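Incident log, structure service

09:12 report received: a user says their structure output differs between two submissions of the same chain.
09:20 pulled the input from the user's history:
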Amino acid sequence: MPILAAGFSAFPGAPVNPTEDLAKALADGSAAPRGAVEAIVLPVEWAGSWPALRAAIERARPRTVLLFGLHARAERFRVELVARNHRELGRPDAVNGFPAGPSILDGPPTLPARLPWDRVAAALRAADVDFEWSTNAGSYLCNETLYRLAFHAEALGVEQFGFFHMPMSDERIPEFATADALPEVFLSLPFAQMVRAAGALIGELGGA
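09:34 re-ran on a clean worker, output below:
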């Protein structure tokens, strides 16, 4: 399997997660050709996200892993370049678990994601997807999972990997508003644009 893609489930402050919708669309073939990608949904759990991803990597043996996560305050599709060896203490996960300490692993302060960035940029622009580069993936489970992937990628045979943050989807705004979970000011994207972005990346990187 050349590409493994993963979205995340709901978590405190996010009663729905559009990247779960994206992963399901990739898995059922509605967002990418069948056989081009295996897609999974990761739990937003300090003790569960990485084990779930690692198990999927060991099963599928992908060369490329693409992670997609929600950032409700993002203004556009965000390409994360770096993972940081830092956790936000005191922030609960989806099952009310908490991080064990401020550091993720006994590793360097930062680890880079590993994708051909010129091709990533070209693919997104060709798909008419507005995007920005970021060197701060936060200190929650998105960053945690990316850091662990970067730390273990070589041992797992993963040649390329990256993380992409997305705003809320237009279609999920009503559920966010009902749950009083919306930031005071935020942007959203049509789900079709999220699908287009993921499809462009998979199409570009699938043969890499």
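09:41 both user submissions now match this output. Likely a transient worker issue. Closing.
09:42 reviewer note: The beta strands are 3-8, 38-42, 64-70, 77-80, 82-84, 110-112, 131-134, 160-166, 168-169, 188-189. The mean pLDDT is 93.
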